[in-house]
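Residues determine shape. We examine one folded chain.
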Amino acid sequence: MPLAAINGTQLFHLEIGSGPPLLVMHGGLGVDHSQFREWLDPLGDAFRLVYYDHRGNGRSGRPPLTTLTLAQLADDADALRAHLGHEKIAVLGHSYGGCVALQYALRYPGHVARLLLVGTTAAWDYPDELAADLQRRSPSAEVVAAFLDVPADDAEFARAQKLVAATLGFRAFDPERVEDLFASTIWSAAACARSRELMAECDVAARLGEIAAPTLILGGRHDFFCPPSQAARLHRGIRRSELVLFERSGHYPFVEEPAAFQHAVRTWIAGDT
């Protein structure tokens, strides 16, 4: 299992494909890189995909949770870039991983070749919009509880997260697709709980204008967690950005519309080179 000694812990990483390197940041926190493999591996003919698990997540080390901060996650990513010998690297972040990607782009602008932001936000500051959408969707009390609370037990956390993903993550209820998505996931309830504590620190809305890297923003029209309004805010704030919304997707457009997602990435690469 490929592990790199990074900043006092070990980071699992896996490289697939050829071409310019693309560092893939998973969200959660509490999940891992494996959710991307089936749907992003086909982009291995355009990028050298560098999948990895954040500290405290997946197959990576379990240092003290106090070391799990947004700044440290960005520092880990840059240390991994250096470990792999790349001067610059493209970065893809999904959901909470997009928050890490934004932190990385702001802390290490000279090392970011491109930025791809998928189903993410510049700040978790829209509770009224979430509450209104939750009321409209009218999920069961069990789903609401699973969304709001993080169980301490990893197995219970996995069950709760799958329920939330199946009910709120996709355009339509789809438990079978969720089982595929998380088939190889190593869960960490502790990492998820820690990420909830850090959500207020994710706010970079006022700094989006500092991002100079070419940026592709990819969102789902039916994304509950990071709705189109948040993709639009990213697009307004980042000068060199393009926005693609997938009309039949929720929070996981790379899963729900894989061909369209891959086509959008390839088209953007071709137009930006």
In short: The first strand starts at residue 3 and ends at 6.
